Amino acid sequence: MAIRNIRKYGDEILRKKARDVTVFDDNLKTLLEDMAETMKDANGVGLAAPQVGILKKVVVIDVGNGLIELINPEIVFEEGEVVEVEGCLSIPGVNGEVVRPQKVKVKALDRNGKKIEIEGEDLLARALCHEIDHLNGILFVDKVIKFVKPDSEG
C-alpha cells in the first residue's frame, strides 16, 4: 500500500468524467487499498479515484463505521434535503454550505465485481453524493450556496 498524491483544485483531471471499471484485478485492489490509506492519512471521510489522478469510477468512504469500497457507483434513490458544511481534500482550507439529500440509495459493484446496494443517511449520504460528484467532474464548490470559514479543528 502507498500514500498517493491528492490532486488539488485547478488540476484538470478533477473536471473530467471517470470511466466505468470493467476489469476487476490486482491493480484495482491495489488502487482501493492505496486510496483508503491516502484518505486516512489526509483525515478525510471519502476519496474518489480522480482525486489521485485515476479516471475510473472508484470511491472509498469511511464516516466512522468502517471502510466502504464502491466501483461504478450510481445513486438510484434520494430523499429529503439537508444543508451542511462540506470541505474537500482536493480543495484544502475551503468550506461551504451545500444542499444534499438526507438519504440516498446507491447501487455499485464491490472489489470483486459483485453487485451491492448501500443506503446512507446524513453524513454517509452526503459523502456518497460528494464522491460520486467527483466521478462526474463536479466539485463541491460548484454547489456551494454560502462559503464559510473553516472551524478551528480544520
If you had to describe this structure to a student in words, what would you say it looks like?
The protein is of the alpha+beta class. About 20% of the residues lie in helices and about 30% in strands. The strands form two sheets. A five-stranded antiparallel sheet has the order 1-2-3-6-7. The chain starts with about 25 loop residues before the first helix and ends in a 6-residue tail after the last strand. The mean pLDDT is about 95.
How far apart are the termini?
26 Å
Number of helices: 2
What's the story with the biggest beta sheet? 5 strands, antiparallel
Strand order of the largest sheet: 1-2-3-6-7
Strand residue content: 25-35%
Give the overall shape: globular
Order of helices and strands: HEEEEEEEHE
What value does the Rg take, in angstroms?
Answer: 14 Å
Helix content range of the residues, please?
10-25%
